[in-house]
Design goal:
alpha/beta; 10 helices; 8 strands; 37% helix; globular
Amino acid sequence: MNDQQLLRYSRHILLDEIDIEGQEKLLAAHALIIGAGGLGSPAAFYLASAGIGTITLVDDDTVDLTNLQRQILHTTERVGQAKVLSGQHTLTEINPTIEIVALKERVSGERLNELVRNASVVLDCSDNFATRHAINRACVANRVPLVSGAAIKFDGQISVFDKRDENAPCYSCLFPEDQQFEEVNCGTMGVFAPLVGIIGSMQAAEALKVIAGIGEPLKGRLLLLDARTMEWNSIKFARNANCSVCGHAH
């Protein structure tokens, strides 16, 4: 690190758990963020400011006026612009020393696999089960840690799935692909603006912990937040030996 970097990241370096060695791990890391909306915004803000060396933002949507109530990467003047380009602009202003890759795509199949394979950690900031399951399959196949968040109305949840540990559960162990879950979105149900900020910031925290190898990630634990009462519940869950995604290989 040069003098400017030592100064920029000095408050991380002062932490014994991170220090210079941990900060260098962050600078060498590549975070893939899928979804540049409510969750992706705060997650990207903190990963960029913390010095993740490369951040790839993936989203095929454009900025809409209704997004601005909670999607803090974007501004009024950027309504109609691609979210990833708006996000790239914001993050570059925060930290011009890192690389921000903007991909206006809806990724799936081999393209998704390729992106996941090149990442140190994946943050699922999407808003539908089909995408979440596709991301999970790619992360399991490539043994890349996944930080998954979700938020609707006043309810949020977050967990970490890390198949570098063979005994760790994957997303499909918790939410099996063959089970029907009600698909709800904020366009019809609404969402409390700071809720996505809380969950997205926690996704960034978990990603930083995974990369730097500090603390205890939310592996095998699902945290649930009711923002109406600001009460957290923690649910422990184990790997499903019959999981259609990670079970058959063992």
